[in-house]
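Task: sequence design from structure.
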């Protein structure tokens, strides 16, 4: 008889669906259900059980098959049942619950957590993991079972709306708040006590593995035909009416499943994981419950499978678990001590990798590692950031100076244009620091453990000539959920199997040690190295979306910088002063949470951003002395003159500015250098509305095509005034309901033209930029980044160049040619684009660079009213810009305005002997010693020498260099600025390499 392999594959799918899987959990009893509905904010579990014990919970009868829940509400179900006489019969008993699952959206809608009557949690349920352990085969129950077999359980069910459904990115208002209404009700379909028949589970997995191996095997190979024949014989042997046939059917597959892996197969280290977004398509309060559900699932799987190990990041999530569910936390701690539950990463949350200030990234680590050490007893070795939208080139230095040895992400695999050339490599930061980095080649942090993923990972792995080790993160993620029993059963089949990589469960530190050693030994001088930032060629709109969040971030970081400095000054001058450490810790932890990679980037629902409208940062490296606002100057007042056609001329002896009647600038002339900054044929300060209708990922994207669909907005000059010698021109620009009021200011003797914009924004699917063309021809622009600078292309010669069409700007960008440069600084903007301006003499157009700041967007998903309302922006164009001048101007623009601040002698200052050294942050030491911590870095990308000076209160103090966590265990291969070791603080000599960061500890 001819063998038809494709026919066997189709036959297999149907048999599994109809004749195998339904027998895994045969029902032996249906549970009775009662409900208690909470349509608003959820009741904490301990409060619920306290009220239950007092008789204050009024359960109502509930009929299975009925609708339940309101949008973002919670329903507590009381589940009662009876174990039939004679059970268990050699098989464990499990609950199977169906709350009305959508199997295509694990973690994105309804979930639940099952409790005992004493309030301790057993396990969670979600669409793809809906079993709950009840009684083992020997009769040991998870709950109290009465003599008559009766029992009671409680199910806390979260009625979360499905926001990212099929099709995705559909505009919805359901992400705004708990409505108290059943907008999209679910149906509680079934609640059964079942037998768990492991024979059918194992057979189902065997069939899936064999059929998947066939799909990816060479159809001309003996292996393909051997698999097909074994599959045929197995399906022939199986008869669902005869349970004993399962073992015969499995035996028919045993031979092909015992064939060992190819000698050159990849070695894959698998680790269980659940990526839990601290907020995204759900509010923070729901994340707290997701953490408990996910950890309970992981612990239940550890009970079921002794080989299972699980890795979890984010100190904030552990802290929530410790506070909300001490019973789960205690069980988790036991597994941590066994080495099976593995805390990784050591950051407070998995933060955005591009937008936070360098100090914020350090504090993510400082607060995170402190929690990990004090509460979990571990010190992670690696940075764990699988899902952030790009990674600053400062990360390798920050990580190494925090004591990390490795770095993990996979997000760069999402690039929409170019493919990253490595999966295992040394990532070299802008300063030259290197850290071993791995991108799991399955290109996911949420693998299902399928043959397809292993096959893809092996083919995709870019460094096969030098290494054969890779990491696989498995478990449902984003909304949590975690690994399942089915996933582990698949992995057990892959331990040594022909046709797939060799898989073993291995904790991340062990994998990274082996992978780094193997790559170093095999590569030698050919070690793969990537220098600079990891730019994500996707999600570029996250630099702009939810602008209030971003402005708040910048402001709060700035205020924290100032407050910590003033607190240190107060502590040094007054022994009775009580430093507000607890309050500052609370503020920092709130800020760090809100720098999570779906909050600060603006890609979460309205609820999240409403809760996180925070005031944030300032990174002023220019001066540590309070400056008076509008301080008198000896410079002459700015000249204002009205010209023909409604134009206005401003001049201060340094710059002359011609403002057209429509409020745009036709000339910005540097009189000292005879340089026109506005190319002929362009207008500086023109607002442009771009059509913004991404194909997918609305709030995340600004697509290339949008840059081709810009329409200029029309404005007019409303007034010309002078104040304190400065000239101010007020311009009104409008488009339907959107109104922009811009104040253009030229100050006496200034090299800067300042802009302040008040915007009342009422657009849908539009993107607002302001054009700032500069008469400078350059191939690249230089951008501010954490602890240094990064250069990105203006001229787009290659696909990689073109993919960087929208850039992270941070506080400033500098555009320069061989002899002259200009800068654009800003107070809250993070996105921009830069492109060449082609000159045309015949048409009177000059060449130059078009630089545009990205101000506002208006996506309709996930928040349909993104940024609608009032906003304010500040930016300046700086003529004759050096790095020093740009840093100083950015520092002043971003500095907070405080009232009644005395003139304080700087606690410490840096005297640059040569080069550019910035004193970035001063604070008291975290250990409460009263020592002063000073953070400084080289800012221009060259060598620098400097001297440290301290205030009289620190006379006689000593200084030594530490890691960024203020400890003395700085890695020996990292350069130090304080090269002579501990010495007197006053006059201490410092040497910095390019973009080198130093943390100095001054002890009295």
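Answer:
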């Amino acid at each position: 008889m001819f063998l038809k392999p494709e026919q066997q594959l189709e036959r297999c799918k149907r048999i599994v669906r109809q004749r195998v899987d339904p027998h895994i959990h045969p029902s032996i009893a249906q549970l009775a259900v009662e409900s208690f509905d909470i349509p608003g904010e959820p009741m904490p579990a301990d409060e619920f059980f306290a009220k239950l014990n007092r008789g204050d919970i009024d359960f109502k009868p509930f009929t299975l098959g009925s609708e339940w829940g309101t949008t973002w509400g919670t329903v507590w179900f009381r589940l009662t049942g009876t174990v039939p006489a004679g059970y268990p019969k050699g098989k464990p008993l499990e609950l199977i619950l169906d709350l009305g699952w959508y199997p295509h959206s694990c973690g994105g809608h309804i979930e639940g957590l099952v409790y005992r009557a004493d309030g301790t949690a057993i396990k969670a349920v979600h669409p793809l993991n809906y079993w709950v352990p009840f009684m083992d085969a020997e009769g040991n129950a998870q709950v109290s079972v009465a003599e008559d077999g009766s029992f009671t359980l409680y199910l806390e069910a979260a009625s979360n709306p499905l926001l990212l459904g099929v099709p995705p990115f559909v505009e919805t208002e359901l992400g705004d708040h708990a409505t108290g209404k059943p907008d999209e009700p679910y149906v509680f379909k079934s609640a059964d006590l079942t037998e768990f028949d492991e024979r059918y589970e194992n057979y189902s997995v065997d069939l899936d593995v064999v059929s998947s191996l066939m799909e990816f095997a060479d159809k001309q190979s003996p292996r393909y035909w051997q698999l097909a024949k074994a599959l045929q014989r197995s399906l022939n042997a199986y008869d669902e009416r005869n349970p004993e046939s399962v073992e015969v059917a499995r035996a028919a597959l045993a031979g092909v499943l015992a064939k060992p892996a190819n000698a050159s197969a990849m070695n894959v280290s698998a680790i269980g994981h659940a990526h839990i977004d601290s907020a995204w398509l759900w509010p923070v309060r729901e994340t707290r419950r997701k953490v408990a559900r996910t950890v309970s699932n992981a612990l239940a799987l550890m009970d079921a499978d002794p080989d299972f190990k699980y890795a979890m990041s984010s100190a904030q999530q552990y802290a929530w678990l410790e506070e909300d569910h001490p019973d789960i936390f205690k069980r988790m701690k036991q597994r941590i001590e066994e080495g099976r539950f593995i805390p990784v990463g050591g950051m407070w949350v998995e933060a955005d990798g591009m937008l936070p200030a360098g100090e914020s990234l350090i504090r993510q680590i400082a607060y995170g590692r402190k929690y990990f050490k004090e509460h979990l007893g571990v010190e992670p070795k690696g940075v764990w950031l699988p899902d952030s939208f790009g990674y600053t080139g400062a990360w390798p230095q920050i990580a190494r100076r925090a004591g990390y040895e490795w770095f993990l992400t996979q997000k760069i695999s999402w690039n929409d244009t170019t493919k990253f050339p490595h999966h295992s490599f040394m990532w070299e930061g802008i300063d030259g620091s290197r850290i071993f980095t791995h991108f799991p080649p399955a290109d996911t942090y949420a693998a299902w453990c399928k043959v397809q993923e292993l096959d893809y990972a092996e083919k995709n792995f870019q460094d096969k000539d030098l290494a054969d080790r890779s990491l696989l993160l498995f478990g449902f993620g984003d909304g949590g959920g975690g690994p399942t029993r089915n996933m582990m059963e698949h992995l057990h089949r892959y331990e040594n199997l022909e046709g797939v990589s060799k898989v073993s469960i291995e904790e991340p530190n062990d994998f990274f040690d082996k992978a780094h050693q193997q790559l170093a030994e095999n590569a030698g001088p050919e070690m793969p190295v990537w220098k600079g930032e990891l730019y994500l060629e996707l999600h570029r709109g996250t630099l702009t979306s939810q602008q209030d969040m971003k402005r708040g971030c910048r402001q709060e970081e700035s205020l924290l910088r100032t407050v910590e400095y003033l607190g240190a000054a107060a502590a040094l001058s007054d022994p009775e002063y009580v430093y507000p450490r607890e309050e500052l810790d609370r503020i920092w932890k709130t800020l760090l949470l809100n720098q999570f990679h779906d909050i600060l980037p603006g890609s979460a629902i309205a609820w999240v951003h409403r809760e996180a409208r925070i005031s944030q940062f300032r990174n002023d490296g220019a001066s540590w002395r309070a400056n008076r606002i509008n301080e008198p100057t000896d410079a002459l007042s700015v000249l204002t003159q009205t010209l023909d056609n409604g134009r206005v001329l401003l001049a201060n002896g340094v710059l002359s500015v011609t403002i057209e009647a429509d409020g745009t600038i036709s000339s910005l002339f540097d009189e000292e250098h005879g340089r026109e900054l506005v190319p002929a044929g362009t207008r500086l300060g023109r607002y442009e509305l771009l059509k913004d209708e991404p194909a997918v990922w609305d709030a995340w994207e600004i697509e290339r095509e949008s840059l081709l669909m810009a329409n200029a907005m029309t404005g007019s000059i409303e007034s010309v005034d002078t104040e304190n010698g400065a000239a101010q021109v007020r311009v009104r620009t409008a488009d339907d309901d959107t109104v922009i009021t811009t104040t253009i200011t030229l100050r006496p003797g200034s090299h800067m033209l300042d802009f302040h914009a008040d915007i009342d924004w009422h657009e849908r699917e539009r993107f607002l930029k302001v054009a700032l063309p500069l008469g400078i021809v350059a191939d690249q622009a230089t951008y501010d980044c954490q602890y240094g600078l990064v250069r990105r292309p203006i001229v787009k010669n290659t696909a990689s160049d073109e993919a960087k069409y929208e850039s992270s700007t941070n506080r400033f960008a500098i555009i320069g040619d061989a002899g002259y440069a200009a800068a654009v600084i800003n107070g809250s903007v993070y996105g921009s684009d830069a492109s060449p301006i082609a000159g045309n003499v015949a048409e009177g157009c000059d060449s130059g660079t078009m630089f545009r700041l990205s101000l506002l967007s208006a996506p309709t998903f996930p928040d349909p009213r993104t940024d609608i309302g009032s906003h304010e922006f500040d930016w300046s164009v700086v003529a004759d810009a050096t790095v020093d001048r740009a840093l100083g101007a950015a520092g002043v623009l971003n500095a907070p305005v405080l009232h009644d601040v005395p003139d304080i002698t700087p606690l410490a200052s840096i005297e640059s002997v040569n080069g550019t050294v910035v004193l970035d942050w001063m604070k008291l030491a975290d250990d409460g010693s009263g020592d002063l911590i000073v953070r400084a870095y080289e800012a221009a990308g060259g060598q620098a020498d400097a001297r440290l000076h301290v205030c009289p209160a620190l006379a006689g103090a000593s200084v030594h260099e530490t890691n960024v966590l203020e400890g003395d265990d700085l890695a020996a291969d990292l350069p130090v600025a304080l090269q002579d070791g501990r010495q007197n603080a006053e006059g201490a000599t410092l040497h910095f390499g390019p973009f080198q960061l130093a943390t100095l500890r001054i002890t009295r």
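The CA atoms of residues 558 and 618 lie 3 Å apart.
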